[in-house]
């Protein structure tokens, strides 16, 4: 099974990118989808109804949504495997822009909106530095000059990052992302998956540097994939 983690600011077009990916690959792959959000999310219901794929969500509540994603990632991989999936798409809420939810044995995709301002990539250094691909959406709403400046800002952060420019609503330019997903190696050992980089300091065990995925390896405010309807848990 391939693992793809899709992160980026709110309203950058992450779900539109996910939707185009599913639409293009559903005939060749059994796809499962997990949405990480803070309080409310509907993307899993919409994608399940539209494409008939296994989909679910988890709310982070008082925990950073990217940290919550790390907590439930091991459970999510097991769930997707039980569903017979050979491609798991995980969409993060990505609120603080400081966290980088990408893992080993997976493909890291950062989604940015071209209309968010030319300095936006500079504010997302951690998220872009550890990603494999940057997908720039809404390119139909900016000029060629603005696109070039935006691209150079991304290059300032990560000169080696592959950049895909797309109107995600119509799927233009998505073939480069689809090719990268298909070329991504499958997971070989779920128990060996770790974060690509250390998260910022904070109040949970992920914040202080533990990189193991799965709530079983952590304590404090934790999140499980099952029974995650509550918004706060002080274990």
TrEMBL record:
InterPro entries: CobW/HypB/UreG_nucleotide-bd, Hyd_mat_HypB, P-loop_NTPase. Coiled coil: none annotated. It comes from the Archaea. Pfam families: cobW. Transmembrane segments: none annotated. One of its GO terms (molecular function) is zinc ion binding. This is CobW/HypB/UreG nucleotide-binding domain-containing protein. It comes from Methanoculleus bourgensis.
